[in-house]
Each structure stands twice: as structure tokens, then as C-alpha cells.
Amino acid sequence: MEKVMEKVLVNSADVYKGYLILVNKDYPLKKESVSRERLSGIGEGICLENRTASMLMQLLNELKAKKKITAVSGYRSFKEQEKIYTNSLDENGREFTEKYVALPGASEHQTGLAIDLGETKKEINFLCPEFPYKGICQEFREKAASYGFIQRYEKEKEGITGIGHEPWHFRYVGYPHSKIMREGNLTLEEYTEEIENHPYGENPLVFGEGKQKVEISYLEMGEGEERALSFLADAIYQVSGNNKKGVIITKWQGR
User: Fold this and answer.
1) Residue-level pLDDT at 38
2) Alpha-carbon distance 185 to 53, whole Å?
3) For labelling alongside 103, which of 111, 193, 201, 214 has CA 20 to 30 A away?
4) Distance (Å, rounded) from C-alpha 62 to C-alpha 181?
5) Which CATH number fits the domain 1-20+175-254, given the four candidates 3.30.1490.20, 3.30.70.270, 3.30.200.180, 3.60.15.10?
6) Strands across the sheet containing 114-119
7) pLDDT of residue 131
8) Where does the D-alanyl-D-alanine carboxypeptidase-like core domain lie (predicted)?
9) Taking the mean position of all CA atoms in its chain, how far away is CA 179?
């Protein structure tokens, strides 16, 4: 029986969207905000990108932690991030702000893929909520990768991320990327750089768990370029930009 193939067009605009985009002061966002249709509410005044919200809720449900863990801050518009940054400069000074608050345009919160969480208490610090390495918070941390989340800003990686240690800040990157990063102790900066060593169609990074095998590869895109990728019609795949110069292609084999 002849295999039915499906062509998927990828263009240079795809570099700047997807679950694996790297957002920091060196690689700020190209788009200012996320459309309202792509956001889901998860709490009073707090939204996340739809899939990110769904996976967070599934994880909290598994842990029976909805009342024990509080969503403190999710999606922010450029104006909201600008206000938070300016207020922090006034209230906390430049050193604190540059360590814990991203510049407007360079904040993961503007993607809808990042969430700040706090242990549920009567009073919670908005910028630095308590999320200790014990109890329900640690249980969340240990399960996070299985649901596509990473703790984004680790203490020993401050020189790489440019942000201080934030035990409360989690970023959705999707599975199996979250597992690979967790097992390899890699930041998103390091991971996107590593994937660039695995060009599409030549040398994929292979991840296996159980009967499932996943191939991950990188395709650099020139300005205004469009490429056609071929997949089996029933294949499970995902294409995400890295917010740098290319796209990351994730292809599942086996279910």
C-alpha cells in the first residue's frame, strides 16, 4: 500500500511563534501580544495560552493542588509588563528589578506560556511568591516535565538566562522537550542551541520513552523564505520557531 504524504509549508514568520520560542533580552518578542482567542482563564484575572492552561490544570488536578497552589501571574500585555517594570524600579530599585523583572518585550509572560505560582497563603508576594522545594510545591516541580513544563530560572544558570533564581516561574515548552531539558539540566537557551546541532533531514535528536520515539531537528530559515516539509498523512508532528533564526521540528513515531 502506497504511503500517503502530506506537505506542510513553513515560512520565516514561523520562526517567531510556537511553544519553543526563546524570549529574553537578546531575543525579544516580534509580536506584541497573544490574540484573545488563544487565551484561557485559569483564575481571577489570570490567563494563559490555551494548551498551556489546559496542561497546567491537568497537573494541578492530578496533584489535587488547586487550593494549595495559587496562580499569581500569567499572560501580560506589553503595557502591563512595562508598568510592572517601571513600578519595580520605583519601589525596589534597579538591581532587584534587573534580576527579577524582564524588560518589556523580553518577558515570557507576554507569550502566555509562562506562569508564576505561589504556595497558597493569606498574603502572596506578586513579584517573588513563595514556592518552596518541599511539600506540594516540590511535588508540582517533580511532575512538571511530564506535563510539558520546566522551571525556567535555576540558581546555577543565572549567568545564562540573565534572570535571578525564580523557584516560582514555570514555562510551557511541551513534551518531550521538557523531559529532555530536565534530564540534561538544560535551560531553554542551552536547549535551543543544542537543537541547532541536529539539522532537519540529516541528524535528528532522538528521544525514546517506552514504545514512543521522537525525532527533533532544526531548520534554519532565511528572511522571506518558504520551505515545504513532507510528513506521513497520519503522522504526529509539531513545528515551533526558536525566535532566533529557525524552526524546531518534532516528529513522533509510535503512540
Assistant:
1) 93
2) 24
3) 193
4) 22
5) 3.30.200.180
6) 69-73, 114-119, 166-172, 149-153
7) 98
8) 48-174
9) 13
Alpha helices in 41-184 (DSSP H): 50-63, 78-92, 94-100, 135-143, 158-161, 177-184
Count how many Cα atoms sit within 13 Å of the Cα of residue 236 in the half-sphere of its side chain: 8
Under a CB-based contact definition with an 8 Å cutoff, are residues 242 and 195 in contact?
A: yes
Task: Say what percent of the chain tops pLDDT 90.
Answer: 87
Q: What is the CA radius of gyration of the chain?
A: 19
The reported pLDDT for the residue numbered 49 is 97
Amino acid 255: pLDDT? 52
Pick the CATH number of 31-172 from 3.30.1380.10, 3.40.190.10, 2.60.40.10, 3.40.50.12780: 3.30.1380.10
In this prediction the pTM is: 0.95
**Mean per-residue pLDDT pooled into runs of 10, the chain (255 residues):** 81 96 95 83 93 98 97 95 95 93 95 98 95 98 98 97 97 98 98 97 91 93 93 89 97 76
Q: Where are the alpha helices (DSSP H) in the chain?
A: 50-63, 78-92, 94-100, 135-143, 158-161, 177-184, 188-195
Please give the positions annotated as active site: 166
Amino acid of residue 230: S
User: How would you class 135 by CB atoms within 10 Å of its CB: exposed for 0-12, middle for 13-18, buried for 19 or more?
Assistant: exposed
